[in-house]
Amino acid sequence: MSVEITDTAAAIARVRSWENQLPEGERLFEDPFARLFSGGAAADEAVELLLAVPVFRDYVRLRTRFIDDAVRAALAAGIRQILNLGVGFDCRTLRLGEIAQQGARVFEVDLAEQLERKRSILAAAGIAMPPFARLVAADFTTDFAAGLTRDLVAAGYDASVPVVVVWEGVLGYLDDVACDRMLRWIAQVAATASRLVFSYPVSRFDPEDLLPRIRAAGFVWLDDASLADVYGRYLPGEPPQGGDLYRFAVAWR
Ligand SMILES: C[S@@+](CC[C@H](N)C(=O)[O-])C[C@H]1O[C@@H](n2cnc3c(N)ncnc32)[C@H](O)[C@@H]1O
To answer: What is the reported pTM?
Structure first.
């Protein structure tokens, strides 16, 4: 089975679209947009592959809620920029009303073709991205830093004020070189008091290896928790088997 990295975003959207089928009181988030992105044979394959890990659905549900709450907390603390790296078909910009209410700006970064796909799927549904959101293309596996900084600044990004950086479901697809290159770049564009929130598979990054690298890039820890821990914060009952396979973290500068 061959799954393109860009197809994984459609698979994540598919999993998010199932949340609406749960009774209202059991949902971890509301995402009326996810179903728009969840179709296609390529997504079917990606869903099948990802859900071969039984805890994967809980991973997507919990990371979505964990990161929603981290973004809300950053907004409540006065942060007014959101930088979403590898945004895929995530629709926080449209679904978190607090972003518009607080007058925050959003910068969504992904591969050019993925951003174009997102824009055209939304357009076909009659939905335009709001004016406070800008889509900026980059390929993290290349020497992207100078070009991305320039394009973000041209789009209105201000590296002198704090930002909340969202790095959701992306680290698992990066090798060590790309991970460290991204961390160095994030540290350059994230002013003091910025926050970095991310999820990662333990199969790819051992926390004992990853966390010191994030500290070395200039971040201080707030929270690094296993899926099982985060399950206990949001859901009743015992965490599922495999609750140690994924982790969620917030770091700050
Ligand atoms: C698993 S999806 C997660 C999407 C989104 N963050 C979410 O949680 O819904 C991974 C995303 O990372 C993007 N991505 C992967 N490799 C990338 C690269 N080298 N440069 C830029 N984006 C990349 C993919 O295009 C895809 O949209």
So the answer is: 0.96
